Amino acid sequence: MAGTKQKTKLFNGRDQSWMQFNRRVLEEAEDAGNPLLERVKFLAITGSNLDEYVEIRQAGLMQRIEDGYREQGYDGLRPDESLAALTADIHDFVSAQYRCWNQHLLPELRKQRIQLLEWNELDEDARIYAQNYFQREVDPLLTPIAIDPAHPFPRVLNKALCLALLLRRKRRSSGPQVMGVVTVPRALPRFVRLPSAEGYFDYLLLQDLIAQNLGGMYRGYEVLGRAAFRVTRNSNLYFEEEEARSLLETIRVELHNRRKGDAVRLEIETGADPEIVERLRVNFELDEDQVFRGDGPVNLSRLMFFYGDVQRPDLKFPSFTPRAFSLSRKSANIFDELRQHDVLLHHPYDSYDPVVDFIQQGAEDPAVMSMKQTLYRTSHDSPVFSALIEAAATKETTLVVELMARFDEASNIRWARSMEDAGVQVFHGVVGLKTHCKLAMLVRRDEDGVTRRYCHMGTGNYNPVTARFYTDLSMLTCDPQITEKVHMVFNYLTAHAEIDDYRPLLVAPLTMAESFLGLIRREQEHAQAGRPAHIVAKMNALLEPSVIEALYQASQSGVEVDLIVRGLSILRPGVKGLSDRIRVRSIVGRFLEHSRIFHFANGGDDEIYLGSADWMPRNLFERCEVVFPVRDAAAKARIHEEILPAYLADTLKARLQQADGSYIRAGKILKDAKPFASQDFLMQLAEGKTDLDAIPKPAAAKALAKAAQRKAHAAD
């Protein structure tokens, strides 16, 4: 391996990989094969993705540079070099976003009689309606500001849409120009629905409506120019544990301080007066390359509005009803069922109701004596919270809530207080570590007099809303070896009580990293001994260098490695002498791929693990995570014969990563392969419209993999 390091770059850049991921999402917006409003939704997602990335990652790089960091990253770049490359990529990406909007989506929307109109396109009735709406709903929320020595530049909120104005007093036609700022109310939709002919959906940008009424707000001024703009601020969350009075108080203080973050990006309309741009740039202390111009609505994430407001089911994905779960005839309740066998659920193809029912039954069942639950983020009206509050009246009820779930801290604080008021014992996990594992445990005295533990373990959050469009796996079990160690994990979370051995669970930050490395080394030993050796791993991101180097070594020893990585991957697949047998694919489609699956051939005695952790430093070393084995024969067969083969055979929504970090659609590499979309297949399977025979045979999947390898070798 040492010799390889000298000859070959081991890792691609993290920022490059993230931009590649968002480009894959943008491809879905550009893809005419997707329904039109779904394409608009994908474009909006690229906007919200970019927002979060800029205020966290780009801001973090800037902070590191200011703090004097010069160390090279995985890709050999210093923070200043990474920032320069990232900023250039973002400029290119923003241009691509607006090309997609202006050249693809906007014309198609017009063809479908969905129109975003400008003021001069409105007829008299629409103008009267808009003006009445302004007087009734908008004007009471506006605070126009003219900036002068007595009125300094206002504190612009993070990502708030504003109008910047260039003004001059009418009585002083030769006097100095001054700036004006109007914040567009966040409480109102960014698009005003206008009266229109039947079958038409006509809209006006809220900022354009406000602009038509500037004269009334700035009487005595002449408006020389105006432009919509938006400022993104540093939203990194930093605090010192030892200086904090309590974690709860610390997060509350940081939520307040977040509003005081330095500006890191200025978005502004392409046609903005250069004087306005320069004044804003100077005011926010930004460099020119931190100014991003957009030829269209500022803040593309707000385009999500159209998806909900336009009632055109024909322009969306067909509706899908998840498969319902049924108890077997011998079972009166879920506890009877679990004493017979584990239950594996694949969401959203399987309904999420059994998970909610498990927790609600635990709250209602007098035979259940205690309930323990972890929560990272969930919906505002979550039935899980209601069940825990109900349980607290009669049972020992414990909740471990993650206060630092990024951008969900405020709601989690409110829920934590509500829980405490109801009598739930609320803990915030291990200080300094995020609690990211997905665990629920009930202790029940069963009808036979035996006290048993019943557990739910999953790969996704306890959120019935996101469970409809995230792919995740749930396992319900009363396996005594597993449930005993889940109990020990809760002891670790509430009392920091560690034990030496959590097997069969893999628990971060205690045992998981070394356990995964050991499993990879074991495959390497099997390959060297001529036994079956194959790793298939599905996750959200792959960033941990030690795991990647172990995969490289396994590949060189003969292990076949198939990785399904939705987002970031800095591994370089298909490099001769380094990663010949490693293939990386990413699937971006209707549902957000969120499940984590780890399959090891183990010389023919297959092992499968599921869990909450990606192969990233933060998951393996900086969070409380749990990965658990799948032992039930039927559950293992389902993953081995249905779920993983479907993902590996995808030619329509899968992209194959190349050695340089770029991605190519699988169908373009193997043009003769049968068109196959894994998510479509899994939906049809859940609805009983197809069977496992529809999955392309392994030979076809292997041919696709070999074609990808040849292309990677040629590029390298």
Question: How would you describe what is shown here?
Answer:
- By secondary structure, the chain is an alpha/beta fold.
- It has three domains: 2-8 and 506-715, Endonuclease Chain A (Endonuclease, Chain A, 2-Layer Sandwich), CATH 3.30.870.10; 31-315, Polyphosphate kinase middle domain (polyphosphate kinase like), CATH 3.30.1840; 334-495, Endonuclease, Chain A (2-Layer Sandwich), CATH 3.30.870.10.
- It has 22 helices and 27 strands.
- Strands 14, 18, 19, 20, 21, 23, 24, 25, 26 and 27 form a ten-stranded mixed beta sheet that branches. Strands 10, 11, 12, 13, 15, 16, 17 and 22 form an eight-stranded mixed beta sheet that branches.
- Helix 2 (14-30) runs parallel beside helix 4 (79-111), helix 16 packs parallel to helix 17 (545-556) and helix 19 (633-649) crosses helix 21 (678-686).
